[in-house]
Amino acid sequence: MAERLQSETAVPVVTLRSLEGAKNMGSGLEAAFDPETKKVVDRYNSALEKLGEETAKTSADVLITVPDRDASMLQSRMAEDAEVGRPLPSGGLEAQFGEGLTGGDIWGWAKSVFDHVREDNWHSIVRPPDDKVGAIADKGRVAALADWGTNLYGAPASAASIKKAGGYELLLHLGDIYYSGTKKESKKRFIDAWPTGAGKVSRALNGNHEMYSGGFAYFDDILPHFSQPSSYFALQNANWLLVGLDTAHTDNHDIDEQQLAWLKSVMQKKGQRKAILFSHHQPFSRLDKQGPGLQAALAGLFQQQAITAWYWGHEHDCIIYDRHAQSGMLGRCIGNGGIPSPRKSIVRNAPTERPLDAVAWKRLSQNEDAPACLVLDGENPLVKGDEKKFGPHGYLTLEFDGPNLTERIHLPDGTEIFAGPVT
User: Fold this and answer.
1) CATH classification of 134-421, choosing from 3.30.365.10, 1.10.1660.10, 2.60.40.10, 3.60.21.10?
2) Mean of pLDDT values over 312-324
3) What is the H or E stretch that residue 8 is in?
4) pTM over 0.90
5) Beta-carbon neighbour count of residue 295 at 10 Å?
């Protein structure tokens, strides 16, 4: 009974070992495979190769994730169906593959997973009924987390800090529930763990990992749970307009013409308000891929310098950019919500601009893609056994006071490590 209860309450972590163990059950039979099974084997091996590359960069004992639908769906199914195994030093329990799960037919199990990975198995986007904008108070606080849907490491600690502080006007998630945002994952790693009661309103943006399972849990479970009418939305007070975008549904890292038309209509009606955008994906990056689709779609707004600040996730780092020369906006990546992200050598070796007790802000110069920036560096005490290898987790708060806005970056325990005006 105790083992069963532990299995039901634990957060399962699917490591490379988990899936390699499954593969070993079907090894030595390749010569007998028919063409359809061979396709399944090739897809499975390709997913393992990608997970292996990520494991080599991170650790064999932490939650790993790759931007790949096959790999993410395999991890989700394994986490949901496999026998929970040994405790991991860094948190969670490693999922182990058992013969009872498939009756010994590993490739039949894998095929059943891949059968759900079809382009036509995709929830339609839920759009706003019009361009009307909701209201938030002129004075109040917003808490924002990104890439937080793990229920491990810094994620529950940040939720506890937000819940303890309470009194927020808005709680906002910028997307990604792991591994592929299935219904079970969305409930256990997101809805059940969300700091309900700490804010008057909760909103969730769509991420690529939610869409790997077709987006069904995001659209059918999370949006109704938050009484959120659509996957992109706008809220405003007398001085500020807050816009959340869906950059994951129509085309990963982009928005379609209908959403763009809605955005332009909302922006045209903002009057003298300053605009802040929120999204899962980045428009630009100093450390990762760029967002050319978003840059092209919003080129007119960039040229008009109509956006004051833009907050995003997707990259599992915390980055504070200098003002963008062309658009005039302040870019912020806050994707360090719950995924163990290896500390990058380019950051560790960069000059320290703001040393703190436990962490430091490192300065990176501008390049052709992005402005100069501060990147958060330091150890992560919540990734047990690998504390020195992974960067700190945390979250963002915004404090509105009439025309004044202050942004603050926090460690999971609530410690403030950065504060500044948004102008």
Assistant:
1) 3.60.21.10
2) 98
3) helix 2-9
4) yes
5) 15
